[in-house]
Amino acid sequence: MTEWAFIALGSNLGDRRDALREARERLGELPTTSLVAESSIEETEPLGPVAQGRYLNQMVLVRTGLAPHDLLDGLLSIERRMGRVRSERWGPRIIDLDIVRYDGMTVVEAGLSLPHPELPNRAFWQRELSELLPHVAG
């Protein structure tokens, strides 16, 4: 059985557009996961207290057979393989991958909250999500 998942991509270091492209490719390489649609790419101001450059953000819709925690593990693995180092909260990053929604599931556990708790606070995520919702069948 496969589920719909909405994944946010963000980058503000290096070739940001290329980092988003690479992340999309790697998402499609996760087991039992296929990329269905991608939103427009949007440039945004950084969030949080750390001074840093602007982000390129995008959201993708995937169909996956991975359970939410397994999908999260896959995203963290992609981040590591692309060179992300988690040293500073809200700091600059080559790539950031977040599960925004996983079908209609609600999860509140250590390390994973679905829908993502920042969704109501990020207008760009809301725009990207609405751009992708028409691609969800049924």
Description of the structure:
With 138 residues, this protein is an alpha+beta fold. It has one domain (3-135): 2-Layer Sandwich (Alpha-Beta Plaits), CATH 3.30.70. The protein contains three helices and seven strands, in the order βαβββαβββα. The strands form two sheets. Strands 1, 2, 3, 4 and 5 form a five-stranded antiparallel β-sheet that branches. Strands 6-7 form a two-stranded antiparallel ribbon. Strand 6 (107-109) and strand 7 (112-114) form a beta hairpin. The protein is globular, with a radius of gyration of 14 Å.
Please describe the structure with a list of short key phrases separated by commas or semicolons:
alpha+beta; single chain; five-stranded antiparallel sheet; 138 residues; Alpha-Beta Plaits; 30% strand
